[in-house]
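re: ur question from earlier - yeah i can do the single chain one, its not a big deal. heres the input i used so u can compare w yours
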Amino acid sequence: MNKGIPDRDRMFRVAFSMIRFMHDNALLRLLVDPARLLRDLGVRPRDTVLEVGCGPGFFTVGAAAAVGPEGRVVAYEVNPYACAYVEGKLAARKLAQAVVRNVNAIQSGLPDRSVDFVFVTGVPRVVGGLSALLTEMCRVLKPEGSIAFRPSRGDTAALNAMLGELGMAHTDTRRRFLIFQPRL
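and the output i got, formated as tokens:
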């Protein structure tokens, strides 16, 4: 055990190293264009996008490209090492329309009905629980907005049921993302 480094800090560093290795590499960039994928899911120029669990920013940079300079991307991440890394990527690319916040997305602080598009990719666990996260996502989503959720594992039927109870309908599945929209 290294002296002077709290266990929580070490946990964040190790977790970020693993996530960066898997989700921020040249092979993945050759296979997936995140801006194109997000446009395929429904992100439009000038949208306000909420990304839950941005990790190393693979999709954050893509979302910023998809919304363009007049849009806005808010990326939430609980790992401070990931946040610092993504902030550096955004600054290097001069993507001022995107911000990273080192907070838990279940307490977003965003106004009601202020987001056009919410997306979650491969978040295996949510501090505070999935139900609390889904409730917050529905609260900030505009009535004409969409939620795209790509579960890392688990029961998609449970996800459908939870979002159904919150007034959302599963309208499509695209590129392994489940798309939900408010019921009319």
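The longest strand covers residues 141-150. not sure if urs matches, ping me
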